[in-house]
Amino acid sequence: xxxxxxxxxxxxxxxxxxxxxxxxxxxxxxxxxxxxxxxxxxxxxxxxxxxxxxxxxxxxxxxxxxxxxxxxxxxxxxxxxxxxxxxxxxxxxxxxxxxxxxxxxxxxxxxxxxxxxxxxxxxxxxxxxxxxxxxxxxxxxxxxxxxxxxxxxxxxxxxxxxxxxxxxxxxxxxxxxxxxxxxxxxxxxxxxxxxxxxxxxxxxxxxxxxxxxxxxxxxxxxxxxxxxxxxxxxxxxxxxxxxxxxxxxxxxxxxxxxxxxxxxxxxxxxxxxxxxxxxxxxxxxx
Length: 286
What we know:
- There is one protein chain.
- This protein is of the alpha/beta class and 286 residues long.
- 39% of the residues lie in helices and 17% in strands.
- It has two domains: 6-205, Rossmann fold (3-Layer(aba) Sandwich); 215-279, rRNA adenine dimethylase, C-terminal domain (Helicase, Ruva Protein, domain 3, Orthogonal Bundle).
- The model has no long low-confidence stretch (mean pLDDT 94).
- The chain has a seven-stranded mixed β-sheet, with helices on both faces. It has a two-stranded antiparallel ribbon with strand order 1-8.
């Protein structure tokens, strides 16, 4: 069974009367080289894997041959029979039909993986990439790494540092959890149906370390800073956190940060130090 063969894929979908759903952003991989690279660079040998959106099981099939266990969460019930056929030979694969954003991810992964860590590997629909990433990162699930394919432009924003034009609040947010990098670029031609844009595979290594600021407080600071990103950081933080401008100015100077900086000029460490000092002063919820 060659699930990356366009001809075999079409025959399989016709056999089960499957139609692609635009609303679910379904685009299936039809390039075995890309699948192999994801499996190889994801280093999934002997690992527990959570896959989101397995589709017909193309990536799942290859991962199941090397992984310890694979738990695949799929929202499209019409794929139930197809997945039973394509993955039926594997005793280490479980398909859970649900909307991942409405799933207690800690509960379902603990039920399947126990207390063992797991990696997330997924080809995420473009329209819901950020919400899924944020949900996973903010969960208490025992995730060690996240390896996901997404729209190339979104990937560039996620991995950008403050020297790049793509740098923004999502860049800072993701870096809070650990280092992120692009493993490979993926052309739009390797999907069926073919999307309008190219993709990239991003790897986020989850760093379990203490931070001087909670993620909720960091989000407050980022909303204030990037919500008015055309303003100086002095003005945006003063207004966004409802703080006296003179106080914010003093904190910036204490940290050797120019008051003329804008949101995109600050690193994660800058935001952590700023947040710690500003919110201790009583910044209100924003």
